[in-house]
Amino acid sequence: MAVIREAVRVTRKPLVAGNWKMHGSRDFVAAHLQALEAPLSELAIDIAVFPPAVYLDLAARQLAGLPVAIGAQDLSLEEDSGAFTGEVSGAMLKDVGCSLVLVGHSERRTIYGESNETVAKKFVAACSAGLTPVLCVGETLEQREAGETQQVVSAQLQAVAAVAGLDRLTASIIAYEPVWAIGTGKTATPDQAQEVHQGIRHWLGAEGAKTRILYGGSVKAANARELFSRPDIDGGLIGGAALVPEEFSAICRLADQQ
Ligand code: PGA
């Protein structure tokens, strides 16, 4: 069992990613990243932060030389550049030091009306720019209660696979984030999360065994250990708890101990 776990860890190294959402300031970036520097530099897992777009450059400069990846929270579905007022392209994100980008976060889907098709186009734009997409999928409470969780998640995956191809989907990172657990303090139980992660992996087919699948939704130090101990959970996408350096570093340490 331990040997299998080790083999899996080679391709699916745990990743803890902090999604700052629309929080922060120049002072916050400086203080927060400085507080993370020492605790995170000794860990063997992958770590990433997703600051708001205007602070990406600042964060990238401050993290230069540290083993922490930078990701953006969204990108334009147009490629590179053009007359698209207010948009930020994948090429620009890459230019300021990003290697990752969230695609299809539930707040983008519900508040800004991003459809599965839009999400798929953004996924492709991310790949074209040389960024690794972190594709967020997940069901609402209503859908869960109607027994539609796997169906909803499969449709979200299928929309991306249809446009980007299954190969690019399995080579990306997937974050299962039940909408009812995001920012609500309600976490999916480790069993609920494991069941959906296993379903996603099964849906992805043979190559899905290598895909990193993160859990997100009210993850904190108090519940991270149990979630990360499940075989198909390869780390977490952390919102609120990522804004508190002690909490975020504690979650990273728990992932490192698995
Ligand atoms: P939360 O957010 O940890 O605050 O629930 C997670 C996310 O939205 O990625």
Structural class: alpha/beta
What is the count of helical runs?
A: 12
Number of domains: 1
Major β-sheet, in short? 8 strands, parallel, barrel
Order of helices and strands: HEHEHEHEHHEHHHEHEHEH
CATH-derived topology: TIM Barrel
Distance between the termini: 13 Å
Approximate helicity band: 40-55%
CATH architecture: Alpha-Beta Barrel
Ligand inventory: 2-phosphoglycolic acid
> How large is the radius of gyration?
17 Å
General shape: globular
User: Which residue ranges are poorly predicted, with pLDDT under 50 across at least 5 consecutive positions?
Assistant: none
CATH class: Alpha Beta
The percentage of residues in β strands lies in 5-15%
Q: Let me know the number of strands.
A: 8
Strand order of the largest sheet: 1-2-3-4-5-6-7-8
- Average pLDDT rating: 94
List keywords for this structure.
single chain, 258 residues, alpha/beta, TIM Barrel, 8-stranded parallel beta barrel, 12 helices, 15% strand, globular, binds 2-phosphoglycolic acid
Please characterize this protein's 3D structure.
This protein is α/β, with parallel strands linked by helices and 258 residues long. The protein has twelve helices and eight strands. It has helices at residues 2-11, 26-41, 56-63, 90-95, 106-111, 116-128, 141-145, 149-164, 166-170, 190-204, 221-228, 245-256; strands at 15-19, 46-50, 68-72, 100-103, 132-137, 173-176, 212-216, 235-238. Helix 4 links the parallel strand 3 and strand 4. The longest helix has 16 residues, at 26-41. The protein is globular. The two termini are 13 Å apart. 2-phosphoglycolic acid binds at residues 19, 177, 182-183, 216-219, 237-241.
